[in-house]
Amino acid sequence: MQFYAAERIGLFVDGSNLYSAARSLGFDIDYKKLLGLFASEGRLIRAFYYTALMEDQEYSPIRPLVDWLDYNGFTMVTKPTKEFTDATGRRKIKGNMDIELAIDVMEMAPHLDHVVLFSGDGDFRRLVEAVQRKGVRVTVVSTIRSQPPMVADELRRQADIFIELQDLEPQIARASSYRDDRPAPVGND
Predict the structure, then answer these.
(1) Could you tell me which residue ranges the NYN domain spans (predicted)?
(2) Which of 138, 106, 137, 141 is nearest to 121 (CA)?
(3) What is the pTM (predicted TM-score) of this model?
């Protein structure tokens, strides 16, 4: 990885996107290891995790993860999902967190030297460009090794550094004896 020891780093994790990317590569993220890895690369200022939650359920399968992250160094950004019926009459659930993530990146940019974005969503290309104009380096973490690739080509090209998620697997994967069978966090599709 290309970090400087005195660099102020901010992590911005698109929860559903990272979950889907890791799942497509066949491993689960150990978020304690992930936090430790980037904290060892520079001065970790803040780590944000974005996910939408189904509020109307008595028990949400993602709630234990959200609670653990909240107590273990992540700033949680959540909002309730929205339910709607699409044009074909199918019930859909949506929980897009793009605006929340973009606002937090822009607000934190003056306090950071390096933004690490865990997402492959091409909608973030303009955000990356705007932050770069403020003098902040941007690393995008996602994968091109899944079928189809989980990172938009325009986002990967805009980033100063692209880290292939699969290359981080040895450092951030959960022990192989444990498989997370919870449903994916709801969010960006």
Answers:
(1) 8-165
(2) 141
(3) 0.87
